[in-house]
Write a structure and sequence with these properties.
The structure is a homodimer. Chain A is mainly alpha-helical. Chain A contains six helices and two strands. The longest helix of chain A has 21 residues. The radius of gyration of chain A is 17 Å and the shape is elongated.
Chain lengths: 132, 132
DNA sequence: TATTGTTATACTCTATAACTATA
DNA sequence: TATAGTTATAGAGTATAACAATA
């Protein structure tokens, strides 16, 4: 799906990259956004609201992701005593281990995708995407 | 959905860009890949096989897209007399008009998304993405 | 036998709307 | 009344498998 338009070029590469990540994560049985959730939880306990914002998805999506993570005992949620409407979501030890696996998989995709780019080019790409 | 990993940055921007294009195309009632199909057909008549390759999708997806385009009389398909297994797919006049509309919508997204980029930066982005 | 296109079907991702419980 | 989270459900988008027509 090639084209000469920059928006389409970016969309195309993004879809390809996303598909590649999904494929890499597929081995773990976890979806793309579930993997992203693990990464956010690595920064510390979070409410579901904060996950909704960071993932940019509907609340119901976060519920489904957390159900999956709890089923696999990769994360836990418990009531926040300070506001019993909220949940405190946390990684378990198994979750931290799973995260390490996914980081390794991501590194492989990274190397594979950007193999033909110089150090300067990857820095440049990062800068430019930051402005988009 | 921010992150410091380049693969994730690219995936994120790609998904955002795709979503933005879908939204822009939404006004026409046509999907993203249907719009892409119109663009490919603008280059001249095509077989369904060639569309499959360029869109990078399953044959059944192309069938669905062409059913939609034919229903809206934006394209036609007819048997190729040289090989009666093949279809020759062509834009109609209405299809050409619809294409012009979508190009205009894409240009708007282009301007919006890359407003903060210099001429040099857009050229750089194009070059780098070409290597990914 | 291999290729082109079609159909039926199912799976993933995501959002909407109506709901419960807390504040 | 407003907010956090949940459920049920529906709609995209896409792939798989079995198929018919033609080469």
């Amino acid at each position: 799906m090639d084209t000469d338009r920059l928006v389409l070029l970016l969309a195309q590469h993004g879809m390809g990259t996303t598909a590649r990540i999904r494929q890499a994560f597929g081995a773990t049985g976890l979806s793309f956004k579930t993997g992203m959730t693990l990464m956010y939880l690595a920064e510390g306990p979070a409410s579901q609201q904060s996950l909704i914002e960071r993932l940019g998805v509907d609340p119901s999506v976060v519920v489904a992701i957390l159900n999956e993570l709890e089923r696999d005992t990769l994360a836990t949620r418990r009531r926040d005593p300070a506001d019993r409407r909220r949940h405190i979501v946390e990684l378990t030890e198994a979750g931290t281990a799973a995260l390490a696996t996914m980081e390794k998989l991501l590194s492989e995709v990274d190397r594979e995708l950007f193999a033909d780019l110089s150090e300067a080019e990857t820095a440049e790409l990062r800068t430019i995407l930051g402005k988009v």
